[in-house]
Amino acid sequence: MLISLATAAAVAAGFVLLTGPFFIPWLHKLKFGQSIREEGPKSHQAKSGTPTMGGIMIILGITAATLAAAPITTEVLLALFIMLGHFVLGFLDDYIKVVKKQNLGLRAKQKLLGQILIAVVVMYIGTQVLGIHTGIWVPVLDQNIDLGAAYYALVLFVLVGTSNAVNLTDGLDGLASGTMAIASSAYAVVCAMTGHDDLAIFCVATVGACIAFLKFNAHPARIFMGDTGSLALGGAFAAMGILTHTELLLPVIGFIFVCETLSVILQVISFQTTGKRIFRMSPIHHHFELGGWSEVKVVFVFWATALLASCVGLQMLR
Fold this sequence. Notes:
Blueprint (H helix, E strand, L loop, with lengths): L1 H29 L24 H15 L4 H26 L8 H21 L6 E4 L4 E4 L3 H20 L5 H19 L3 H21 L8 H18 L6 H4 L1 H20 L9 H7 L4 H23 L1
Helix pairs in contact: 1-2, 1-7, 2-3, 2-7, 2-8, 3-4, 3-8, 4-5, 5-8, 5-10, 6-7, 6-8, 6-12
């Protein structure tokens, strides 16, 4: 088992590290540069033109590593399906924005339709093949509550919410990749503790790819992962929670992702109802930037918070 875990981490990291020096200049040549929103922090305007769609390296690295090190089980294939399904959605979104020069990318309805299709496949295979029941495990209380048909709505909510949450977190150099590496490390432990050894290999592959990507994505970033990477990584994180049947641990271990999402929701509600903003800017990482924190400080503080949240989540599992 340890050899498989080490192999997965090494293959995923090696793939990203070896392809990066070739992939980044190629994206430069194709002029696949990131467009920076004018309403964003002024300091971010210098990032305009930085190559995006680096998520291709991450996701291909995770896929190759998982197939090389993990047994080809239904659980592993379903995890890859969830991640790759969101990868396709993210790639199409980036392609439309970057290549077709249409800033809105995929419409929200189109993304949601794709995620619903992914959820339907996951729910069918999960319940009919893997035998996942419609109950939900409640941390701390250590009890299972049968949700019945409502469980299917929960799966869709987890897939949509988690993928979009990681997508919102991808706004600072290294923030999303570092946070995903921490959260995936925690879920590798969750998998080991709950008897999902094959899925632990998938988690460790995710850790290896994300850490390796930091070589190119840490401040100052030479490449961004784009929706290609962030939506797919969000899908991978959702898969970890759904397939281990620890859906309620996702918001604990993924505390940073939850904060990023809530900051956007609260900002929109407040502005639409009162005309006032709660935060200087959302997602919340921009709030701290505009408060005087350097980008590097925000990222490190968020990483530290993610590590603490992961430790709390693992304690809840005991």
